[in-house]
Amino acid sequence: MDSVCFFEGICYTEFMKKQKTVIHIGAHLSISKGYASAAETATQIGADTFQFFTRNPRGGSAKVFDAADVQKLKDWSECHSFAPLLAHAPYTINLASDSEQVRYKGTALLRQDLELMEKLPCRYYNLHPGSRQSASMESGVARIAECINSVLGENGTVKLLLETMSGKGSEIGGRFEELRALIDRIVYRDRVGVCMDTCHVFCAGYDIVNDLEGVINQFDSIIGLDRLCALHLNDSMHPIGSHRDRHEKIGQGYIGMDGFSAVLNHPFLQKLPMFLETPNEISGYADEIRMLRALVK
Predict the structure, then answer these.
(1) Residue in 113, 163, 235, 248 annotated catalytic
(2) In 3D, which of 120, 187, 195, 115 has the Cα closest to residue 150?
(3) For 59-80, how does the pLDDT look when each residue is reduced to its tens digit (9 = 90+)?
(4) Side-chain-facing half-sphere of 54: CA atoms under 13 Å
(5) Is position 163 annotated as part of the catalytic site?
(6) Which of 24, 128, 132, 293 is catalytic?
(7) Is 211 known to be catalytic?
(8) 266, 277, 287, 290: which one is catalytic?
(9) pTM of the model
(10) Checking DSSP bridges between strand 171-172 and strand 159-163, what pairing results, if any?
(11) What is the pLDDT of residue 20?
(12) Per-residue pLDDT tens digits for 209-245
């Protein structure tokens, strides 16, 4: 497969050369046909990275390791100057669960996934912190930290990213303070970062539309910008502070194009790898990536 993308037939490499500020943007893609195939699809849609589920998001076995496929991925990534890939944990992992069995199974999956990611050109592994259910926030945070500490050592290269959440129900991670409390309990915290989801933080009550700089400053003072490693770019079907996690296509929700223009032109945020998780097919992702790149001033 060649590297001609959907940018009106323009070669992706030539397109990127014309960009004054290069942003690293990708989409959530399937690895059912292999990692290399996903990388080729990413290039076709104008992306220079991609996110993928390590296994079926509702559970199941991880993809069987194929050394030849992984080598093709590495070669393609190097040839096309890919930004770091982002692996996404399955939704079945809930390290804050009331059930000891659920926490045990989640910890086992986390360990397996991190071991597999060490074999890939994948620097980041994204995890939803978990739902505390009937437990207090403090107890839920303690449970998550205990599970992570049993898995995360000092010698790995993959960084575990805790995702900012919308704060629905008993979900942990809707407030920056909750993520900070969790990070503080992790022994090897140098291997822990944060992935900020635009839809989630907006629905959690952080006004990234009208006061992005204020939100970034708040994140910095509570967690530290050095821990912000990646962004999920999603518009929101619901208004600010709704605590409802429903992604919308870029520009068609409450965040809108002005909100994403602010994100893409923020001097710190625009350096981070960004990943689309909008309700789209491949061609829709291509349109969004083209549209987002055009916003960069």
Answers:
(1) 163
(2) 187
(3) 677 878 899 999 999 999 999 9
(4) 27
(5) yes
(6) 128
(7) no
(8) 277
(9) 0.91
(10) unpaired
(11) 59
(12) 999 999 999 999 999 999 999 999 999 999 999 999 9
Catalytic residue among 75, 91, 138, 258: 91
Q: Which 3 state secondary structure label does DSSP give 140?
A: helix
**C-alpha distances in angstroms, 139 versus 43, 166, 178, 187, 258?**
44, 20, 12, 17, 39
CA distance 146 to 295: 42
For 95-150, how does the pLDDT look when each residue is reduced to its tens digit (9 = 90+)?
A: 999 999 999 999 999 999 999 999 998 899 999 999 999 989 999 999 999 999 99
Whether 48 is catalytic is: no
Q: Is 128 a catalytic residue?
A: yes
| Neighbour-count burial for 21-45, b at 16+ CB within 10 Å, e otherwise | eebbbbbbbebeebbbbbbbbbbbb
Q: Residue 291 is encoded by which pair of tokens?
A: 């549209």
Backbone angles phi, psi at 124, to 5 degrees: -125, 145
